[in-house]
Structure formats: structure tokens, C-alpha cells
Amino acid sequence: MIKETIITKEAPKAIGPYAQGIKAGNVVYTSGQLPIHPETGEMPDNIEEQTRMSLKNLKQVLEAAGANLQQVIKTTVFLSDMNHFAAMNQVYGEFFSENYPARSAIEVARLPKDALIEIEAVAMI
């Protein structure tokens, strides 16, 4: 099986020694996507806009690998505060419809760049 590194300028570049995503056979694994605007490097202030930006970045990495959101089979959502769950969930529903992927949502002590959210995914092509 050949491992392919996924790189796109449409999502923020990796801020460490890791890839934005990896394609292995017909499976795509994304790294956690922070809510960083790829052109400005800025992050929105609220959880709704941070969720939207993280999911847009996730979408771009998937598309660079030849996949899309409808092919996602599992996501993991890392939240800095579980009190943001309902607001995150509402925005998340704008990106995933019917045939939802499996999902875990986890509260963590802190995220890189003090983001409120980070989202990763696994997709089948």
C-alpha cells in the first residue's frame, strides 16, 4: 500500500512535523483542522465561526485527497469547553446531512493556538 501525503494551500499549513492529511489506499486520514483562515492566519472569535472555519479547512484537505464530506466515515471533535457542544453541533449539521459519519466529541484541556475547536476526519474514497 502506498502512502500519499496530502498538501493544500486551501487549508492552513501544518504548524509542526505532520501532514495535513494522508491517503493510504482508499482511505483518507486528516490531521486535526484548527479554525485558522488559510490566507490571513487569523481565527474567528466565537465557537460557531471557529467550527465553520475548521470544517471548511477539513473540506479542503479532503478535496485535495480526492474525497468530500459525504465520504467521511468518522470525525473527532476536540472542544476546549463542552459548554460549546450545542453551538458546535448546530454548525456541524450545516456540513453533514443524513447518512452522518460516526463522531466523538471530547473536551480537552487546551488546543494549539488556544483555539476553541479542532476537528479531524477519516474518509473512504
TrEMBL record:
Pfam family, one: Ribonuc_L-PSP
Presence of keyword Hydrolase: yes
Gene Ontology MF term list: 2-iminobutanoate/2-iminopropanoate deaminase
Coiled-coil stretches: none
InterPro entries, alphabetized: RidA, RidA_CS, RutC-like_sf, YjgF/YER057c/UK114
Species of provenance: Neobacillus ginsengisoli
UniProt key word Disulfide bond: no
Protein name: 2-iminobutanoate/2-iminopropanoate deaminase
Enzyme Commission code(s) on record: 3.5.99.10
Alphabetic keyword roster: Hydrolase
SUPFAM superfamilies attached to this UniProt entry: YjgF-like
Source taxon at top rank: Bacteria
Family to which this protein belongs: Belongs to the RutC family.
